[in-house]
């Protein structure tokens, strides 16, 4: 019962947090920026993951009673949504890299049109990849089940390796490299600012501010990378070492839930650190967004 309550609570929180992100960015016109469009895509994919967590509740006792078709559809949607979530995180890291490391050309390199195209490509590519990877399971749902009430999918081992490279090794490599570069630039800028202000004899107060900025940058980037690794590493490590890529959903509940739990943390990591999110949430909770001119409110 405790497991049921825990998973159900995580599902509700995931849906609630990401719904706030989606409503905020969609409703307020001042939030229609390239970066926020990526957060919107991430929020949409993570919102649907809350429904996948509910499906995991069905599998707690190891019995799937929703039928073979729903089992195949669940695995299909899980592949699409999780892939979109990971790809969007990579796009966000690229966006932040350009914004911090090349701020003068940010507006020309990162535009809303380019971001919309990239987001559409992420969703379309994820749908095509999932369709090819789970083609046999979708054509004949339940073909790999050994008994009634089982929800099993089987993919080629090569496909599992490709999946690990595309959605685990590749994204982690890109995110770590970009964030390391961002951190180096942030630290160097803080040192330049400290040296510049020291020339006007304000070195004491600025030193403290610079150190706080360095620690804040290190802490924020560290949380992003560490949480991403903690949530994704166990699932992909087991998937890569499983014989013949065979995964029984009833035996992988914990790994999948940990994987999905990252979607509950994404709004806290990518959105809650922004002041505009707190302001928009306040307007949403107080129902002020129902006013006719609320979309023009300046929440920045």
UniProtKB/TrEMBL annotation:
<keyword id="KW-0472">Membrane</keyword>
<dbReference type="GO" id="GO:0005886">
    <property type="term" value="C:plasma membrane"/>
</dbReference>
<keyword id="KW-0675">Receptor</keyword>
<feature type="transmembrane region" description="Helical">
    <location>
        <begin position="73"/>
        <end position="94"/>
    </location>
</feature>
<dbReference type="InterPro" id="IPR000276">
    <property type="entry name" value="GPCR_Rhodpsn"/>
</dbReference>
<keyword id="KW-1003">Cell membrane</keyword>
<keyword id="KW-0297">G-protein coupled receptor</keyword>
<feature type="transmembrane region" description="Helical">
    <location>
        <begin position="154"/>
        <end position="179"/>
    </location>
</feature>
<dbReference type="InterPro" id="IPR017452">
    <property type="entry name" value="GPCR_Rhodpsn_7TM"/>
</dbReference>
<protein>
    <recommendedName>
        <fullName>G-protein coupled receptors family 1 profile domain-containing protein</fullName>
    </recommendedName>
</protein>
<feature type="transmembrane region" description="Helical">
    <location>
        <begin position="6"/>
        <end position="25"/>
    </location>
</feature>
<feature type="domain" description="G-protein coupled receptors family 1 profile">
    <location>
        <begin position="17"/>
        <end position="270"/>
    </location>
</feature>
<feature type="transmembrane region" description="Helical">
    <location>
        <begin position="220"/>
        <end position="238"/>
    </location>
</feature>
<comment type="similarity">
    <text>Belongs to the G-protein coupled receptor 1 family.</text>
</comment>
<dbReference type="GO" id="GO:0001594">
    <property type="term" value="F:trace-amine receptor activity"/>
</dbReference>
<dbReference type="InterPro" id="IPR050569">
    <property type="entry name" value="TAAR"/>
</dbReference>
<keyword id="KW-0807">Transducer</keyword>
<feature type="transmembrane region" description="Helical">
    <location>
        <begin position="37"/>
        <end position="67"/>
    </location>
</feature>
<dbReference type="Pfam" id="PF00001">
    <property type="entry name" value="7tm_1"/>
</dbReference>
<keyword id="KW-1133">Transmembrane helix</keyword>
<feature type="transmembrane region" description="Helical">
    <location>
        <begin position="115"/>
        <end position="134"/>
    </location>
</feature>
<keyword id="KW-0812">Transmembrane</keyword>
<feature type="transmembrane region" description="Helical">
    <location>
        <begin position="258"/>
        <end position="277"/>
    </location>
</feature>
């Amino acid at each position: 019962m405790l497991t049921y309550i825990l998973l159900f609570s995580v599902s509700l929180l995931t849906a609630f947090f990401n719904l706030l992100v989606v409503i905020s960015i969609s409703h307020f016109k001042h939030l229609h920026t390239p970066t926020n469009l990526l957060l919107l895509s991430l929020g949409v994919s993570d919102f649907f993951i809350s429904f996948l967590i509910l499906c995991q509740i069905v599998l707690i006792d190891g019995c799937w009673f929703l039928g073979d078709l729903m089992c195949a559809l669940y695995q299909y949607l899980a592949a699409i949504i999780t892939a979109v979530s990971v790809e969007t995180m990579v796009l966000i890291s690229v966006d932040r890299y350009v914004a911090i490391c090349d701020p003068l050309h940010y507006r020309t390199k990162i535009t809303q049109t380019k971001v919309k195209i990239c987001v559409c490509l992420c969703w379309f590519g994820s749908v095509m990849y999932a369709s090819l990877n789970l083609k046999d399971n979708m054509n004949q749902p339940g073909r790999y089940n050994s008994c009634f009430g089982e929800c099993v999918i089987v993919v080629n081992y090569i496909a599992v390796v490709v999946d690990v490279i595309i959605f685990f090794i590749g994204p982690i490599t890109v995110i770590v490299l970009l964030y390391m570069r961002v951190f180096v630039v942030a630290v160097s800028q803080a040192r330049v600012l400290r040296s510049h202000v020291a020339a006007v004899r304000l070195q004491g107060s600025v030193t403290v501010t610079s150190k706080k900025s360095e620690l804040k940058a290190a802490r924020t980037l560290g949380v992003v990378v560490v949480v991403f690794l903690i949530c994704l590493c166990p699932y992909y490590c087991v998937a890569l070492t499983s014989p013949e890529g065979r995964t029984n959903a009833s035996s992988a509940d914990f790994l999948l839930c940990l994987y999905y739990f990252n979607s509950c943390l994404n709004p806290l990591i990518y959105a809650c650190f922004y002041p505009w999110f707190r302001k928009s949430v306040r307007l949403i909770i107080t129902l002020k967004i129902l006013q006719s001119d609320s979309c023009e409110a300046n929440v920045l």
